[in-house]
Specification:
Heat Shock Protein 90; single chain; 7-stranded mixed β-sheet; alpha+beta; disordered C terminus; 5 domains
């Protein structure tokens, strides 16, 4: 990547001048390499991979994956092998011994430019190996930090080979960092269009595959993700080359509300090489006044918001009616997972034929004139024994695609309620909203024109004339055509008893419903299941039975009359409803989230660790903090309905089995925290609220992490 260096005309009058230099000592190299990266492991993986990708691009094989071998217990070595242009001997000796020396500074498509990435393994280890294969020769090198702290490269030898050209970089890994490298590689992989090919270090070494990003919405060079990126914060990222850079929204000036909201979502925005400037560590963007970062991001964000809004507006323009456009608009802005900045912009600008779109509107009786009456059939009115028209003088109607409107001519009323009820009961799917209009004129036209023409407003919904609806079928009263006596049954009350006597008409009996058999007024049900009260409530909560349904008890003398298809014994459907649900994944996820949130040590760190003030390399506490935060951000499935129904059908053992989850990662973090911070429990027990607990915990964690870091460096030095 080309470096943007602005030439500055400088005029100085001085007796003597001397340019600054950097002394090549151990302190300088440590500052430039070892302390450069905040997240050392992830940065090393990213830098080595980026070099491999750049080499493949230079060789014209960017669609070919390079190779990665992860460290294992028996082979604790991290290896990256590419098949690119490779390096000659002189190039290796110069490249690996010169800080800020890069072969890519004049390459607009290359990721690197600082000349630091090739030295990045020194941020973790004092030694790493380089193998360069080119021109039929295989050359071996060892990069080492000497006793004076100054790195050096050593040529170990060469031999002829028929291996494909390329470069291999490898270095040893501490056993407790094996999983860290795998997790870091998965996070880094999100930026690579062509994922590396993973080689198994040994027969038992398994790799579960690279993670995939779930996309909610995408356009030209951008995508909004459905959820978090594992290992990253929930925020906007700029993708330039294979690297994901977090965008600091506070650094970007002159943004409106929608643009700022967009950068507060988990969005990935693609940028061309050179459109942004990054820090030498390549962990963050640089926002200097003379750098292109701020104007590039600002322009892209504005373009994206316009693109999003224009895409939705095109959808509304294609609608044939105002209602249809409003229904689509209501769906878009009401979506729980929709991008908030788009919703904000649409609420200001969305229209159809110049008319602003709404999600709902308030309807007053005076607005529709004296010759029409309007009624919304809500849930309690739909499922009642008899539909009843109740005129609303003022009501709010919601724009939706799931609407049906019945229009009744008052002068030609022929059992309108029965015909509407019969039609609704025979629909495959009950509409979300049901409207009933009574008209005193055929076309709802008053002598004095109303402010709102209901039929014009509802154009785009299903509108049916009551006169066109079928009548309910006539009831047969016995085999001989005689009279059928009403069914004297009992209705379950609030306490779960069947003391309420109810007389069902022939129509009500034929309409059917939910029941259980009674014998001597006692409900008859399987012994391993719970009583009708609990079962009925569980099925309603589960969604198997409507909320407003009624449960009847059928005396033994009437059992045969309840054997038709219209009457359902709740115990006949309970076990089937539970078995069909199979909520294994939801129950396991909920159990996992509960287990993590119940972990006292991890929860304590989440509440009392100030990660913003942490200095140094970071350790088990930071990893546990990030793990807890990630799990905390997950949406916990509501499994109460499953659990209640499982109890009612006697299958709580299923819930217990489904609650099992892979707790490897949780136990790993708990063990690491326990071993790394042995006094953390005492701090939690002994400190009072007024003791500035956050400061104490953060300081203790930092001290332990720094001590662990020094111990690790000593181990590496001794091993070397």
């Amino acid at each position: 990547m080309k470096t943007q260096i602005i030439e500055r005309p400088v005029a100085i009058q001085a007796g003597q001048s001397q340019e600054f230099t950097i002394k090549a000592n151990g302190k300088a190299f440590r500052a430039l390499i070892s302390t450069l990266y905040e997240n050392k492991i992830q940065s090393i993986v990213r830098e080595i991979w980026s070099n491999a990708l750049d080499s493949h691009m230079n060789a014209g094989i960017e669609d070919r994956p390079f190779l990665v071998t992860f460290p294992t217990v028996f082979n604790p070595t991290f290896i990256v092998r590419d098949f690119g242009t490779s390096l000659e001997h002189d190039e290796v000796m110069k490249l690996y011994t010169t800080v800020f020396e890069s072969t890519k500074e004049d390459d607009e498509d290359a990721t690197g430019k600082f000349g630091l990435g090739s030295k990045s393994p020194f941020a973790y280890t004092d030694t790493f190996s380089v193998v360069a294969i080119k021109g039929g020769m295989k050359r071996h090198y060892s990069a080492v930090i000497g006793t004076n702290g100054i790195p050096s490269i050593h040529f170990l030898g060469e031999h002829e080979t028929d291996e494909e050209q390329g470069v291999e970089v490898s270095f040893p890994i501490q056993s407790n960092d094996i999983n860290k490298f795998r997790r870091a590689a998965k996070r880094v992989s999100h930026g690579f269009e062509v994922k590396p090919e993973v080689l198994r270090a040994e027969e038992e070494d398994e790799f579960e595959g690279w993670p995939e990003l779930s996309t909610l919405l995408e356009g030209d060079g951008w995508k909004i993700l459905n959820g978090y990126i594992e290992g990253y914060s929930a925020q906007a990222y700029a993708k330039m080359g294979p690297v994901l850079y977090p965008i600091n929204v506070n650094a970007i000036e002159d943004l409106n509300a929608e643009e700022r909201q967009l950068l507060q979502t988990t969005i990935l925005i693609d940028f061309k090489m050179g459109e942004l400037e990054m820090t030498p560590s390549r962990e963050a963007l640089s926002y200097g006044n003379d750098e292109p970062t701020i104007p590039s991001i600002r322009n892209r964000v504005r373009t994206i918001v316009r693109e999003m809004v224009d895409g939705y507006q095109d959808r509304y323009d294609a609608c044939s009616t105002y209602w249809e456009a409003c229904a689509q608009f209501a769906l878009d802005v009401g979506a729980s997972n929709g991008p908030r900045p788009v919703k904000t912009a649409l609420e200001k600008t969305a229209s159809w034929n110049g008319e602003p779109l709404k999600t709902a509107m308030k309807l007053e009786s005076y607005e529709i004139g004296p010759d029409a009456e309007f009624c919304v059939l809500s849930g309690d009115k739909r499922h009642g024994k008899v539909l009843r028209f109740s005129e609303q003088t003022s009501t709010e109607i919601s724009f939706s695609a799931s609407v049906i409107t019945f229009v009744e001519d008052i002068h030609n009323d022929k059992r309108a309620a029965a015909r509407i009820k019969h039609h609704l009961e025979n629909m495959a799917h009950m509409p979300k909203y049901v409207y009933w209009i009574k008209s005193r004129t055929q076309y709802l036209r008053a002598k004095k024109a109303p402010k709102i023409d209901l039929l014009e407003l509802l154009d785009g919904t299903e509108i049916l004339l009551v006169d066109d609806l079928d009548f309910p079928p006539k009831v047969s009263y016995g085999s001989g055509g005689g009279y059928r006596a009403p069914a004297m049954v009992r209705q379950m009350d609030y306490d779960g008893d069947f003391d309420i006597k109810v007389s069902l008409t022939s129509e009500e009996e034929d309409a059917g419903g939910y029941y259980i058999p009674l014998e001597r007024n006692e409900p008859q049900y399987p012994s391993h299941m719970r009583s009708p009260k609990y079962m009925f409530n569980a099925l309603r909560a589960f969604g198997t039975i409507p909320d407003n349904a009624v449960l009847y008890g059928a005396p033994k003398t009437l059992w045969k009359r309840f054997e038709g298809d219209n009457w359902i014994n709740i115990y006949d459907i309970a076990e089937e409803a539970f078995d069909k649900s199979q909520p294994k994944a939801s129950v396991a996820k909920a159990a996992m989230i509960d287990a993590v949130q119940r972990s006292s040590d991890l929860r304590f760190l989440r509440e009392n660790l100030n990660v913003k003030t942490l200095e140094g390399p970071g350790g088990a506490a930071l990893e546990a903090f990030e793990y807890y935060k990630r799990i905390e951000g997950l949406t916990k499935p509501d499994t109460s309905a499953y659990r209640n129904l499982a109890t009612c059908v006697g299958k709580t053992d299923h819930i217990e089995e489904w609650s099992k989850f892979d707790d490897t990662e949780l136990e790993y973090h708990k063990l690491c925290v326990e071993e790394a911070y042995p006094l953390l429990g005492m701090i939690r027990r002994r400190c009072n609220y007024e003791d500035k607990l956050v400061d104490k915990v953060t300081h203790y964690v930092q001290v332990c992490d720094m001590a662990a870091s020094y111990d690790s460096q000593d181990e590496i030095t001794i091993a070397a």
